[in-house]
Give the backbone structure.
Amino acid sequence: MEKADVVIIGTGPAGLQAAIHAARKRVRTVVVGKTAKSSAWRAHVENFCCMPHTTGQEMLIQGRRQAEQFGALFVDEDVVGLEKQDDVFLVHLESGRDLEARALVLAMGISRKKLGVPGEKELLGKGVSYCVECDANFFRGVPVAVVGCESAAVSGALILLFTASEVHLVCERLQVANTLAEKLRESAVQVHEGLTVIRIEGTDAVKGLVLDDGTHLPVEGVFIELGAKGALELATALGVDLDPESFQYILTNKKQETNVPGVYAAGDICGPPWQIAKAVGEGCVAGLEAADYVRRHLSKTAP
């Protein structure tokens, strides 16, 4: 198992700034995520101080280079799970590898992609869900479908095998690490690759899915997982508190600390405004504080 002092999850502006500052503190810093999936990747930036005209892509490329120059290491994988064991954190990657960290910075953003098909909005909460780990138990003993091609969809489908009577996975093209793809092939999940959903059927509850080749899947639950493992699902697995009004953001103090010692958060995952400047500022604080937390921990355990 690879060990790190600080693991930063997310490669957007918040995660990269956290990486720059943590690495400059000379603690072993590892950043996990796929840079091109950041919501900033396709942005045109005109309101960031001192950089009136640039692109999000250019900012992220330069930010990664800066972090690497200070010693940060990058792992271009999705995170599929987080776990606390004693005084360390385990970061489970889609390849099956694990990272061990003394401190975490959560900077994954909160974007939630939607299918945009008839029935999705109308049946939300009536069989349509965006969180397998949150809602799997509501579909015990009934057929369900997961829609998506990446790690969240595949890992979600595998989890649902423990509760649902049958599990379908609908995806245009599978995009996961070989280890996760092999687990899927060896499982009882029924994979419908090369197809897309055109309609979710039902009036008061989900009754089925219609695919673009005319196939009808008689399912009672539809889990829409169109990206990496959702930020809030990962955070709540550690016991991190969310804001009590909307339950959509992570609560932090001015040091970007969560209620869980050693866990920090920065960027969109902490709530609005959705601005790169805010993300960078919070990332700076989170990276410095996480590095200091590790240094204090190491000083206590030194012989």
